[in-house]
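Review the following:
>
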Amino acid sequence: MKRNTLLKSLVEARQNTMNCERSNIKVIFFDIDGTLFSHTTRSVPASTLRALKCLQEKGILCVIATGRHISEMREMDFLKYGFDAYITLNGQICLDSDLETVFEIPMEGESMKGLLDIFHGMEIPTILTAKDGMYVNFINEDVYLAHQEIHTSIPEVGTYSGENVYMGVIYCTKELEEAVAKKLPGCSITRWCGYGIDVLPGEGDKVAGIRKYLELQGISREETIAFGDGENDMEMLRYAGIGIALGNAEEEVKAAADYVTADIDDDGVSKALEYFHII
């Protein structure tokens, strides 16, 4: 069989499998920034809101899977949309629809020590995320530039007093990332903008949180869809039964997905759900 014919057959086989599975979808995971929330219009597209309402009417669970803290979602007025659960801080804390904690995975050991060393070193702006909020060691131009991109407030300056920490945020450019990573043995790093990276325990990512959530719900990964557009969504897109990248995603994110839909501002979420006959 010729290579092009083989590739076409593989794509068609995967599509047929997804078409068979689409009627069994029980939960859909959504990233926020660039997936649900447009930073161009600073809002959730009307078509996405209609799609979410339709999914809820069909009894399909709609779950947030984000790197953001729940306090940021309050600031964005995101809780009014009535999601069924919130997997926050890239999988480290999961809250139910009433914002009660379902599970939490604090940082500890070597990964926590490395993060605290950077925080206390006062050379690089660093956020520690606790359960009830976030605080930064100091603020510089990189911090201002990063928060201009995501349209949320800069956390207050604070000090560590022994509470559980679930994720770190370090403000550094791509040029400095390698040097920073060497100071964080046992950690995984994912970039969320040109000026900021998230720091998690070595096995920590959105998939860890999603896997735990599905276990508690008694739902298989084959019964899921995930939407995302960023580097920290790639493993989630690979893990879900159907991984969908928005058209505004970078090429490496699109490559991790089963399907690439339109841009967020071109009704990407609703078009994908219609394509798979979910709505």
User: Anything to note?
Assistant: The mean pLDDT is 91.
